[in-house]
Every structure is written in C-alpha cells, then in structure tokens.
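look at this fold:
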Amino acid sequence: MEVALIDTVVLTGNSDVRHADSGALLRELPGSEHPGPADEALAATQLAWLKGVLAASTADYLIVGGHYPVYSICEHGPTLLLIAQLKPLFEAHNVTAYVNGHDHCMEYLNDGSDVDYHTIGSAHSNDPSTAHASAVPAGSLKFHTQGKLGGFASVSVTAEVGAISFRSAGTGLVMKICRNHTQGPDLKAIRAVNLALIWSSSRVCGWICLA
C-alpha cells in the first residue's frame, strides 16, 4: 500500500471567508465556490509532484488523502476544482481510493470508476446533512451516516484484500468496504450483516468483509 497526501487548499484556495480587519470567520464557501489557488505556481508544482508519485507507484493499493472532498453530499458538497484536477489523474493511474475530511460526516461514493471516494470527517460529531445529494452523480452514494454521534475509519491491508472500516461511537462497525487489488469495484450486492459490501468479478464472488 502507498499513501500520498496533498494540500487541497493549495489546489483550490481557502474555503474560509474572513473579515479583512479582525480575521474572524464570516462563512465557509461550498465546494462549488472555491476561489482557485492563491499561488498558481505552487499549485502546479504540487500537481506535478502528485502525477509523478502516482505514475511511479507499483503499489497494489494506492490511496490519496487531502482535506477537501472530491465528491460529497454533506454540508460543503463536491469540490468542483478537485473533480476537474484530480479525478482524471486518479483514473489514469489506478488510484484505489481518495480519503478526505472537511465535511463532518462519514460517507462512501463511487461514480462507476475504479476509484472510491471516502469522507471521514466526523471524529468530534457527525453532521447528517445531505444538502448536496443532488450535486453528485446519480447512484454514486453507497453509504452515509445519520445521527449526531461521531466516528472514525481505519484501513487494513493483507496480501489478498484491502478494507476501509467505518465505526460509529454509538454502534461500532457500521460499514466495511473491501477491495481485491486484482479486481475493480464491481458491486454486486449489499450484505445486511454488518452492512458489509461485497465486491465480485463478473463470474466469481470476491471478498466478503465481516466484523
């Protein structure tokens, strides 16, 4: 497994709108209104670095992490500049998953590509907002937490399978997403037990993740 961390504020600009004199936070911009990079050269340098890392990777599982989401149905919604900048890169270089915070929720989306998108931002408390559900591709939302209790996620990898497990402070394990590195995420069924997702090839049922 290889993990590449990026500074999404460098790529899209800061979502915080602050008072010119006091610096007090006035509001947070949704992902559709990010102003663009404050330093174009620095943003270009970071993108060039990321391209190099992804192109050189031989990892079975390649994960990219950043603060702002690419896709999200939660309070800030998808970040349009990241969709334009990162999504094509991820698909071209076989990225397994992008993991982000910013939105104070837990969610999992897949738009039909081989790239999974995970928001894990509810460590303190969960915001159950679905304000931007209509702003993501139809059918892409696979999991989203409700309620106010916070949670976290963990990543586990073996020689055969990788998994991201979502845990809630109230109920423990609520979702475990599994990926066989030799297969794309051809979602065939959702198992009720532990809400585990089952990935399979077109012929053979693949890895089943249970608690």
Remarks:
- The chain is about 15% helix and 35% strand.
